[in-house]
Amino acid sequence: MTQTYRAIVHNEFGAAAVLRETERTLTEPGPGEVRVRVVVSGVNPTDWKSRTGATATSDIPADGAVPNQDGAGVVDAVGPGVTGLAAGDRVWLLLSAYQRPGSGTAQEYTVVPAERAARLPDGVGFEAGACLGVPALTAHRALTVHDGAPRRLAPGALKGLNVLVAGGAGAVGNAAIQLATWAGASVVATVSSPEKAALARAAGAGRVVNYKDADAATQIRDALPGGADVVVEVAAAHNAELDLARLRNGGTIAIYANDSGGGPLILDVRRNMVLNSRWQFILLYTVSPEALADGIAAVNAALADGGLRFGADAGVPLHRFPLSDTAAAHAAVESGAVGKVLIDVSPSAGS
Ligand SMILES: NC(=O)c1ccc[n+]([C@@H]2O[C@H](COP(=O)([O-])OP(=O)(O)OC[C@H]3O[C@@H](n4cnc5c(N)ncnc54)[C@H](OP(=O)(O)O)[C@@H]3O)[C@@H](O)[C@H]2O)c1
To answer: Where do the Enoyl reductase (ER) domain residues begin and end (predicted)?
Structure first.
């Protein structure tokens, strides 16, 4: 008998209202693929940007595109040739919909290449699993691209380094603070309000500066007397001056977004040469498979160690939506929800 399941799809690019619920037919995983019963789906800015078509990596297939890259659930079936994962394994998902528009996590079952399903450590819930993919792996990459960087973060791997995290209350910013702290770095974060400062502190930032203060540059200078070895940057063009003013000789600015209005990033060549600075751009979708594998391993080690946590007391408030309200979940992220927006896809499957 054909088995059907609930999925959220869109058949055109556009506002959150293009998302609608439908029924799909269960398909078998092909060679190298696993089928996962999704318990929780995580929403990131990339998901609504793809939905609008602005950054979509594929055309919409005839039966619709399913949104959301991140999620967590239980392996339900494995295809030929898959080793290391079996039915019943608890996993977190990464890049589920990248160049696979039917494989997003806003559906009860998804089929993904096995390397996009990572084992969830014992004791770590599906809720945390759905917070990981985009934010934690982007943060891991940003913390491992500097001169002499370890390939894989571990306790002590960033000992002695000063890390400046711009936007410390953001999802990636929070993961960067937690991972850098776990790896032994001293962390200073910037935010735009006292509420966000409290979140950045809860994540582990030793000092927090409101980047909107008139004397923000001075405060950052005071917080980082020796300068920053690594800047994890969410608003490259907007913050370029601030970053360069506090970069240590040989330091790296790891850029993963151009928020705060975007615009071109104009660099003074001589000034950067004198500093031996490194401006490293990051796009998770096109990071090498080796770097992704290192990120997965480090993120799992941090999770198992309690070095990466989720919820308000870790600086990441969680906002839950039922699958039928996926459009509202997308709208929440699009309007700047603070923390992580999660969708309960098949809650009973996770119990
Ligand atoms: N390149 C990649 O692979 C990659 C991966 C993940 C995410 N991203 C992108 O990165 C951005 C952030 O993602 P997210 O999930 O972390 O979003 P988020 O949770 O909404 O966080 C963004 C944070 O940036 C802060 N911010 C904005 N302008 C700032 C500025 N000038 N200085 C300091 N902080 C600033 C925001 O707070 P305030 O506005 O209050 O300051 C907010 O806390 C999005 O554009 C996303 O698409 C890219």
So the answer is: 14-343
